[in-house]
Amino acid sequence: MSRILALTACPSGTAHSVMAAEALKKQAALLGHDIEARAIDPSAGAAAWADDAAMAAADGVVLATDRPVDLGPLGSRRMHVTSTAAAIRDPGAAIHAALALGGKMEAPAPAAIPPVPAPVIRAPAGAPADGARTVAAGAVSAHPSPGAATAPITTPPGSGGKRLVAITACPTGIAHTFMAAEALKRQASAMGHEIAVETQGSVGAKNVLSDEQIAQADAVIIAADTAVDLSRFRGKALYQTDTGSALKKAPAVIEAALATEAPAAADTPRAAAPAARTGKVQSGPYKHLLTGVSYMLPVVVAGGLLIALSFVFGIEAFKEPGTLPAALMQIGGGAAFLLMVPVLAGFIAYSIADRPGLAPGLIGGLLASQLGAGFLGGIVAGFIAGYSAKLIADRLKLPEGIQGLMPVLVIPLLATAVTGLLMVYVVGAPMKGIMDGLTAWLGGMSSTNAVLLGALLGAMMCFDMGGPVNKAAYAFTVGLLASNSFGPMAATMAAGMVPPLALALATFIAPRKFVASEIEARQATGVLGLCFISEGAIPYVARDPLRVIPTMMVGGAVTGALSMLFGCTLRAPHGGLFVLLIPGAVGNVAMYLAAIAIGTVVAAVLVALVKRPAAEVVAAA
């Protein structure tokens, strides 16, 4: 049994202070600890605080506050500082973090701590909630923002902390990549560990891990929804999971990574099948498909926008040989879109078989394009190439002296032959028939069918805010761009913008339904919505998912249905409303904006009606 001292303070001095104190008392009792919890008024002076004897007797101290606090009266005691909302929602996390600190430390000059914002993502039991900070009296530890340079890892002597390195990556390389990185940084700091995180986003790798950082690391975390090259981590204890787990269960991920044993020196991790311990991680065909989509996206974006630019000079100006519109169309439609399916297939195969699968995948994808099998044929080609290359690598054994020929000669030759022959004689014709039928159906849809398809895609986009269902709808519509089907892409992106925009709007309509941190974050959430980053809605969804998710799905379905009904089209698969800056990128702009606005208002009004008041949500958490 440990002794816990909990001090709580909120601006009103009543409700949240008392609720946080009670939550900490109940959780401490469940954990078998002895606790003294006090709701305090810091403005009352030194008398408001616990005496020195109580401080010294405590094995851990929790300070849950939403107001500026002068920590001078607390002396040199180490403590876990968080918000009252975080303490109410996850008291176990606060208690574990306080006990992990324990002891005393030298205090710098007294300083005031600004209010700690409430967490934006719910953390699991046993982990400090997002927004919490672990500090010594008078000192606040800052966490680097995503994209900030990562300093070399240094662990203070005798601190007991570990050194970790991590890589985060998601298919689009935008929201989940950086949110997972920030969650790992924050949690590692709270647990007393040092961590350096490399983000493999849409603009390339940032904060690239140095050889020195990797060599010093006690464990490696790979939080990725796509294939990551693991060759740099030979001989290191390596733990793999997905970005969602790193985002929501950072403490468990870090603990699992530190519990992972390093492989034998002879083992060489590979992107396809690393010699590593794994947690919840997207695997199998779904992960391989997302890897292909993530590499295909930049090609599609560049090609679609260049095609749109060619329309600036007239809708048929590209037909004049030698003109700038003709050149833009040749680059976008003739080159970029020609590469779309080969890149998709190539990197599906790369995800399955690592580099030996790339060549047969690219060639199989090009054959799919030439045979008219479209993106569906490209997907099939990628899987054939990847699994045939992997089978050859695993089963075919050459004499040691010529083993080096396997990745550069034997595997590409045999896998390409297998893939090519199957595409030409077996797969190509059926896939072409399916694609022709799908294209004809999309082109000749009645208004009723178009509305139903748009509603389905819109609801899927708003179901899990960047999760598997969202990505399945997105990947489907991106693939249709190669077949000149631009309507579903418009419905998908329009609906994907609704959740963040609707929740930001709802904070104006019904502010009492949201906590202070959600209201403060509404401007950033709105901007994320405009950028087509659905993940901006996750913090709001985490607090009340059973009410928020259905209302967002209704709003998304309305937007998707209206977009298809109005005949809106979109040639670029990302960028949100900012693609409107490119003339011709969006067809029927006025109705496209109207569809987004109507769906946003519908979702905002619904969530404002059905969502419980913030105080009830916090109390029930």
From TrEMBL:
Transmembrane segments: 295-315, 327-353, 373-393, 405-428, 440-460, 472-491, 548-570, 577-610
Coiled-coil portions: none
Tagged with keyword Glycoprotein: no
Pfam (any one): PTS_EIIC
Catalytic reactions on record: D-fructose(out) + N(pros)-phospho-L-histidyl-[protein] = D-fructose 1-phosphate(in) + L-histidyl-[protein]
Domain (PTS EIIC type-2) ranges: 285-620
Compartment list: Cell inner membrane
Leader sequence residues: none
Location of the PTS EIIB type-2 domain: 164-259
Bilayer disposition of the protein: Multi-pass membrane protein
Enzyme class: transferase
Gene3D superfamilies: 3.40.50.2300
EC nos: 2.7.1.202
Record keywords, A-Z: Cell membrane, Kinase, Membrane, Phosphoprotein, Phosphotransferase system, Sugar transport, Transferase, Transmembrane, Transmembrane helix, Transport
Protein name: protein-N(pi)-phosphohistidine--D-fructose phosphotransferase
Lineage: Bacteria, Pseudomonadati, Pseudomonadota, Alphaproteobacteria, Acetobacterales
